[in-house]
Amino acid sequence: MIHELCYSCLLYFFLPHPSIHPFRVSLLISRNPAAAAGAEAEYRVFDGRFCPAEAEYRVFDGRFCPAEAEAARAHRVFDGRSRPAEAAARMYVVKRDGRQETVHFDKITARLKKLSYGLSQEHCDPVLVAQKVCAGVYKGVTTSQLDELAAETAAAMTASHPDYASLAARIAVSNLHKNTKKSFSETIKDMYSHVNERSGLMAPLVADDVYEIIMKNAARLDSEIIYDRDFDYDYFGFKTLERSYLLKVGGKVVERPQHMLMRVSVGIHKDDIDSAIKTYHLMSQRWFTHASPTLFNAGTPRPQLSSCFLICMKDDSIEGIYDTLKECAVISKSAGGIGVSVHNIRATGSYIRGTNGTSNGIVPMLRVFNDTARYVDQGGGKRKGAFAVYLEPWHADICEFLDLRKNHGKEEHRARDLFYALWVPDLFMQRVQNNEEWSLFCPNEAPGLADCWGDEFENLYKKYEREGKAKKVVPAQTVWFDILKAQIETGTPYMLYKDTCNRKSNQQNLGTIKSSNLCTEIIEFTSPTETAVCNLASIALPRFVREKDVPIESHPSKLVGSTGSKNRYFDFDKLAEVTSTITYNLNKIIDVNYYPVETAKRSNMRHRPIGIGVQGLADTFILLGMPFDSPEAQQLNKGIFETIYYHALKASADLAAKEGPYETYEGSPVSKGILQHDMWNVVPSDRWNWPALRSNIAKVGLRNSLLVAPMPTASTSQILGNNECFEPYTSNIYSRRVLSGEFVVVNKHLLHDLTEMGVWTPALKNKIIYEDGSVQKMTEIPDDLKAIYKTVWEIKQKTLVDMAVDRGCYIDQSQSLNVHMEQPNFGKLTSLHFHAWSKVIMSMLVQIP
Q1: What's the domain range around 192?
Q2: Which in 52, 279, 408, 602 has the greatest CB count within 10 A?
Q3: Which residues are the active-site residues?
């Protein structure tokens, strides 16, 4: 029986022993001599694909060698050489406790069958997965490695049916559960007792106070954890957690996802156990997630939980530049992304009084920042260092700045690992529009332009023009076209509108805001003595799509596809509850956070900004059967962000009633009764009681200066299996690379709908691949589904800008808005940029394939 199954396995797949040179070919062995001679059976694996092959070949010492077919059938490939088939009986696996056990292929099949409960028996075949896994067995393989192979194998079959994705996740999670302790408190104890293998010194992974709190409340915390919720993660979400988020001891993962969530919850709330448990359950049930640095570091000895830092160049001097550089390095070490403004650095050729020399400008300086970003990654290898550099377009080095990321030109004039953004005043846009001249200045010779906005900036700029202080005067459209060239070639610079950002900020009473962050959603005040900080969390919007007449406790944790959308609705009341909890959490993080630099602590304690975002807006529309660009979707988009803003304000006011308003509240627009939508001249709906909220804020103030900042959610949306932030899907089909190769992944909602309709076939999959993930030309798919599954390339980009404007009146920071163009030109880009600027949107990023 063992031999029969083993031979059958080789018809499907073969993985050589890891020590063999990776030629990735294998011998076809058939139990049926007639089949071996038939054309249908003559396939072998080559480079991860089934390819035609002669049956009369076998592998010997890593090579294909001619042989008689009968001799080939009497052999199998083992350790790179042809061995008698009886050798299979001598193969063994290494169990998790170190014991060796003879291979029993039926055990693999039984394990996969057990993990397939509730899945489609017709479309998801665990035996088929087991057969492919069996072919990868080699002498000494561990059971954990077999599970990893089984999970990847099932994930690679997802394009056949979505249930394979569920099976892949179950295998991977089950494998981790078998390799880790069940008890949360015992796991924390192991991490706290960690000893560095090289130094022999204690190196606890858990903070002293958090450890003591968990030990004191061990029984209650252990009893609250529900490990079955780990199985709600999809395969790639779980692997993202395993790779970067779950804590490791000696390179081995010791946390389960539920352990991580409880660690984060206790790390935020400390001895407020009730709040910690509430946070745990909301995150565990996938209603929201905190940002990556919070998941990385909460509860650890150095709990740096903030995502974004905004830095103002300390001074236009060697001391100021290198103090700023050091601050960037220290922040990046602690897993923070950075936005830094360089408007005040003197231009090339400017006089240096201290040395009687001239400046080399911003380019050589930014190359030093570039090398620092490469060297100091985030959190010790968790993520690459990320610096975004902001410059105003009146700076005399603007043209050189625009070239820094280009792929051609002299290497000493390039800094390709930084991200670039322009802080654009309205005056520049007006002069481009009117085809007028634009003057370029050195900030050392024309000081103060970076420190003002609106009419004050315009008056000072024109004054310097009259005084002849410009280093160069060029047509404004020349600079504009240089910007567009850079965007077409590199995707940068990002465009942020300085006057709009300042005019609509609740921090405008603090001074002129000079930059945003890497992802353009944070708009906060900075100065040489204050580094702006923001703590983030994102709401998983698809979770709030409910089925009518189904109690929330009985509701499935994940809905998929648009089938049944007429019986679904969006739960605004639950969104209100979750938003309030997030506001409390983020406010608490400000107090328990570790600040890598003192200027960041000073800023955060004084102004207490937070950033609430979303993920999975596109998934939400699909679940409700709404095309992304439909009027219904646009209305829901507004309703969601109105709800988030209202309840964030309400929760912040409740906190202010208990703890007092933030230090710099007086003089802010909100202190004068001006809310964000008032700045847009928008009247909110009557869904919530705005008059009562205004009255309460007037009495008690707010605990937080800023509240809403939809961020990209690149990693955390992958963890929860949602599309990024409020973005449409970029494609309905794409490839994923894993250790065992590359395979096709299909939009889970589309795959579900087409499977339910009975039209999903390999031929249809190949047609969608040929159309680069578009379904618009598929005659098998009805028009209503085509509308729902439009990709971002098939939606008018002005519609995306208009939807950003619709929600913008409820966003008191900014939003990370991407626009996509397949065949960009100056005309298209100019039209889109000016449309966004005229709609007084704060920021926009251009994505070009």
Answers
A1: 180-285
A2: 279
A3: 517, 519, 521
